[in-house]
């Protein structure tokens, strides 16, 4: 599979480093969970058009397309997407090469353990030796070569029988992410940076986050997991046996005439829980988790302040503009404008402003208050303004 | 005419004080110049929908309708409007009782001397004894009874052969208005507060404005003029003889088959100048101008900060909302939202913000920068964005 990738001249730019002799890479399968509305990016991101379907970096690509391309350079066409039924059309439009059997549609959202567990179970049924690599659809990563080198190390480490996470070297004491405490270095062929995971730790308070960063021992938990599907299922079976039984039942029906009926019957009853709790943390406690420190930049584009960070203002005005046909006038203003309309937008005397202009909803806030957008959405929901959510 | 007003039960509330024996009131004719786009209120106010066609106070009335009602209580149906050709339909819709011969349509804007001069000339042709009272269409005044009492005093004073302005007692050292220095008290029957005008003075610097206010001798020049049409024309003829000849030529054709041709031929050549320079200031120098101090509140709604002032926030949130169907959510925000759309607007963490939401243009600024909106409009014009101006 991989040789097809590295000899494809169109992909040469993406796979400048030859990773084709990475142990386990011939068994690698990319998985992209594409759930989550991205409430803090309302009204741009919303139920009908979640974050991963937007180009939030001005790259010309949606986030899910960029995620797919990053993985395809390593996995070829062996990529599976798990997303909501409502997004089937948009996802197929973004990823025309995605196979039908690799398009897993959730009848309702069930959090990451069910999504990743079902992917693992389906892949296990096809080939129990498969190594999966799960990467969320709505993250921004660069440079892509460094990411791919880290994934290759993770695959090589997973091939030794580990669940491997890729942790991000923290650039500031973020309080919005969980952290990974690194343990002893491992000796793995093809993975010179692999280490044991001593522990996963919850989102810290700011002073704790500062200690973490200062110590050099901690990495951000970016929710990236590379692991033998058998090991994922093993830990899921131990910690969430009902959830495990459910995804295995669906996986056994996958690709058979019973697929739709089984999915519709079993999925709604599955427990909502995160893969961190259901697999990663107990597996770490059992000594089964390793980590590759990723030196690439990583952003989960959690709010509009992130969009400002990821899109440095190119105009002298200090305004970052994201939109197809922006007509923005600004004077003594700075911040971010995201526009989904052809309206003229004039900003005067507003600093660090965030303006998100869509046909049916308008948000005006500041980068400082970007995290509060979630409460606004909750309030709108409480007031029955669901039409714009 | 007036008796018809004071006996109209619907107008009793407006004319609570019986002013019907005011000397000269039987010769009174209201004139409403309705020009000016109100650039500082863009994108609400614009060429196609200027300030006077909006309800900026949440009263349920447009500014021009409120202006008409204030005058009609004194002038009955003797009210003339001078406005742009483009606004004919909107003005007639607002003022269905306005007579055709009292609807003066300018083929192009020519500033106040031409507009008020033509009104004076037309009224002079009808009845040379007429006393006109000119009041801009886009001002907010209250209480209406105090305004009407001041106008009645102005009419009584004008009947003695004066051009009479109504000056506003300043409430703060405004630098955006011209001032009127009051002279000696006059003895006029029916006008106990009439005084000579010592001088009109230009918009002052702030320290000068403070001295003006502290002295108690100065009033704001609100551009209100009550005068015998013959005296207005007399001073116009002395100071702007060509402009005078032009408006007289149009006035002589008014109501005849030659009206349209004469207007189209003569108007475009008229000089653009303000009635202050063409009539009021030279007339004051000649000792022909009196002033009535108006104790009513007055606002020319010059910018969105004025809208905030005139519409105290009624909600605990601190946001003033103007619009037909507002759907505004706010958190830690204060300021003004003017909306012409049915969009949901969410404001988070923005203080003294001004958001003006129209179908094709959006303004985000602060009350502090409200005066800068004019530059934005000029810049948009320079960039060819005329479609939204």
Automatic annotation (TrEMBL), chains A, B:
Keyword vocabulary terms for this entry: Nucleotidyltransferase, Transferase
GO biological processes: GDP-mannose biosynthetic process
Residue ranges the record marks as coiled coil: none
Residue ranges of every copy of the MannoseP isomerase/GMP-like beta-helix domain listed in the record: 334-380
Annotated InterPro entries: ManC/GMP-like_b-helix, Mannose-6P_isomerase_type2, NTP_transferase_dom, Nucleotide-diphossugar_trans
GO function terms (MF aspect): mannose-1-phosphate guanylyltransferase (GTP) activity
Nucleotidyl transferase domain boundaries: 30-312
PANTHER family named among the record's database cross-references: MANNOSE-1-PHOSPHATE GUANYLYLTRANSFERASE
Protein name (record): Mannose-1-phosphate guanylyltransferase
Native organism: Citricoccus muralis
């Amino acid at each position: 599979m991989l040789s097809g990738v590295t000899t494809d001249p169109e992909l040469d730019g993406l796979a400048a480093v030859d990773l084709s002799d990475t142990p386990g890479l011939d068994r690698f399968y990319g998985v992209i969970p594409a759930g989550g509305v991205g409430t803090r990016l309302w009204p741009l991101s919303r139920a009908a058009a979640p974050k991963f379907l937007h180009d939030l970096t001005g790259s010309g690509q949606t986030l899910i397309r960029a995620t797919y391309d990053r993985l395809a350079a390593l996995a070829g066409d062996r990529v599976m997407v798990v997303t909501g039924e409502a997004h089937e059309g948009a996802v197929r439009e973004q990823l025309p090469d995605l196979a039908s059997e690799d398009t897993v549609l959730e009848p309702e959202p069930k959090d990451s353990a069910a999504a990743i567990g079902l992917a693992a179970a389906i892949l296990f049924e096809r080939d129990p030796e498969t190594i999966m690599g799960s990467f969320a659809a709505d993250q921004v990563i660069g440079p892509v070569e460094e990411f791919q080198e880290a994934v290759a190390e993770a695959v090589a480490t997973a091939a030794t029988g580990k669940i491997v996470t890729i942790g991000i070297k923290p650039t500031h004491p973020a309080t919005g992410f969980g952290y990974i405490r690194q343990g002893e270095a491992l000796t793995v062929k093809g993975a010179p940076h692999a280490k044991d995971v001593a522990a996963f730790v919850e989102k810290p308070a700011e002073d704790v986050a500062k200690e973490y960063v200062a110590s050099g021992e901690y990495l951000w938990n970016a929710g990236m997991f590379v692991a033998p599907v058998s090991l994922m299922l093993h830990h899921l079976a131990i910690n969430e046996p009902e959830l495990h039984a459910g995804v295995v039942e669906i996986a056994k029906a996958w690709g058979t005439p019973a697929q739709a009926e089984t999915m519709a019957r079993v999925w709604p009853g599955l427990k909502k829980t995160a893969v961190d709790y259901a697999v990663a943390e107990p597996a770490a406690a059992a000594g089964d988790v390793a980590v590759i420190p990723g030196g690439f930049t990583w952003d989960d584009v959690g709010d509009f302040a992130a969009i400002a960070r990821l899109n440095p203002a190119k105009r002298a005005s200090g305004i970052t503009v994201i939109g197809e046909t922006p007509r923005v006038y600004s004077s003594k203003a700075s911040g971010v404008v995201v526009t989904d309309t052809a309206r003229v937008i004039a900003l005067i005397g507003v600093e660090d402003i965030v303006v998100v202009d869509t046909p049916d909803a308008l948000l005006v806030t500041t980068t400082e208050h970007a995290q509060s957008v979630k409460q606004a959405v909750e309030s709108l929901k409480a007031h029955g303004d669901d039409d714009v959510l």
